[in-house]
Amino acid sequence: MIVRLFQVISNKLSTDLHSCNEWLIDNKLSLHVGKTECILFGSKRKLGKIQKIEINYNGHTITGQTMVKYLGVRLDQSLTGEAMVTQVVSKVAGKLKFLYRYQHCLNRNLRKNLSSALLQCHIDYCCTTWFSGLSCKWKNKLQVTQNKIVRFIHGMQPRSHIGQVELKRGAPQPYLSAR
Question: How much is the CA Rg of the chain, to the nearest whole Å?
């Protein structure tokens, strides 16, 4: 049953891609096959029962991916958001490491402005699309990352507690919470 449905989906996508190609040609546009990706979304249980999807298009085969990047947001097949969190945490950690090297040259207000401009923007970008589907484990990773940003702003020790006092002193409000 699932294999039959899978073949129907693959054939329908191939047909739709050819229709899109005709529209593109009519409007003097083209499809870059090298950049074209496809992904099949579903639960891990259902995705485990099917093989990789393949779409045929003008002699080219477009194979299904387990994760795609669309407008800077990483989408995996199960829409868990794990790939996005991993990317955000990695980017913030790298930039925070760079800022710590020059911490002695920066006053608190400048650290706050740099954190908002260089760090918090990664957490905020498209957060409404991927945050709600995260498990507590991944929400906690984001919260830990935001706590590191607050500690940097206030010049606190790495294991210092982040409480209401620190937040009231002007740090960007960490709005992510695992609970």
Answer: 22
Sign of CA dihedral 14, 20, 22, 28: negative
Tokens at 114, concatenated: 């740099």
Which residues have CB under 8 Å from 92's CB, separation 6+? 119, 122, 123, 145, 148, 149
The tens digit of pLDDT for each residue in 64-118 reads: 888 999 888 888 888 888 889 999 999 999 999 999 999 989 999 999 999 999 9
Rounded-to-10 torsion of CA 125, 129, 135, 141: 0
Domain ranges of the chain: 2-65, 73-168
pLDDT per position as a tens digit, 36-66: 888 888 888 888 877 778 888 888 888 888 8
pTM for the predicted model, two decimal places:
0.73
Burial class (CB in 10 A: 0-12, 13-18, 19+), 84: buried
Amino acid at site 48: G
Q: Which two tokens stand for residue 154?
A: 């206030």
Determine the residue type at 9: I
